[in-house]
């Protein structure tokens, strides 16, 4: 599927990404609007608000551990050295598609 909108559109509409996979696995994500109700674990976490840090910066060891844990959750088809041709499914919520269509109509 072709990405239907620019990164500036996603930032302007306050998008949220969530992983809707069972615990311990990564098999599907969803892109929604910030206020949409959805299942899953939020993938976008605030770091700054109004120029001020809102969370403690993790240590290098914590970052490495987190990266390793996340890589372990990916399907083998995405971590293999040879491409498998199998992508990672990302669903785009209907609310995001509707907002993108509204923006397209306004900017024609």
Automatic annotation (TrEMBL):
Q: Where is the Nicotinate phosphoribosyltransferase C-terminal domain?
A: 41-98
Protein name, entry field: Nicotinate phosphoribosyltransferase C-terminal domain-containing protein
Q: Which InterPro entries does the protein's record reference?
A: NAPRTase_C, Nicotinate_pribotase-like_C
């Amino acid at each position: 599927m072709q990405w239907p909108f620019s990164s500036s559109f996603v930032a302007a509409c306050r998008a949220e990404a969530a992983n809707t996979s069972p615990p311990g696995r990564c098999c599907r994500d969803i892109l929604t609007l910030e206020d949409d109700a959805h299942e899953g674990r939020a993938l976008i976490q605030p770091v700054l608000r109004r120029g001020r840090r809102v969370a403690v910066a993790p240590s290098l060891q914590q970052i490495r551990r987190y990266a390793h844990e996340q890589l372990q959750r990916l399907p083998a088809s995405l971590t293999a050295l040879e491409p498998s041709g199998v992508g990672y499914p990302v669903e785009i919520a209907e609310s995001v598609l509707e907002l993108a269509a509204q923006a397209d109509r306004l900017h024609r």
